[in-house]
Amino acid sequence: MGVFERLAPYIQDFIYQNKWTELRDIQVAACEVIFDSDDNLLLSSGTASGKTEAAFLPILTELYNKPSRSVGALYISPLKALINDQFKRLDLLLTESDLPVCKWHGDASVTEKNKLVKNPK
To answer: Where are the alpha helices (DSSP H) in 37-79?
Structure first.
């Protein structure tokens, strides 16, 4: 079974609806490591090479297959603008899933932060 077939159904749909013709090499490699081993993974590649999806697609698939009872993944960024950008991308990707996404920085809603703290599912 190829990497694409192992991704969560909503991710496969997202890829198809957005007319991606293929996964990039870094995305395939990251999926293989995350799906097939317990090894740690460090992604390093040029700008606009697909690193974000290389990390998020297999991790979100794992959370889809084995739902977390708490915060399932934590993305840390040094820039608020990058957090906002990643939030928009994840929010769009997760539209057809039951996985919540929350951004957390100084300008983020206190209500949303409190909601996550009280019920991190």
So the answer is: 51-65
Q: How many CB atoms lie within 10 A of CB 1?
A: 6
List of residues 6+ apart from 84 with CB closer than 8 A = 103, 105
Helix axes 9-17, 80-93, angle to 10 degrees: 100
Tens of pLDDT, residues 63-96: 999 988 888 888 888 888 888 888 899 999 999 8
Closest C-alpha among 113, 13, 41 to residue 71: 113
Q: Do 30 and 37 contact (CB within 8 A), yes or no?
A: no
pTM of the model: 0.84
Domains observed in the chain: 3-118 (3.40.50.300)
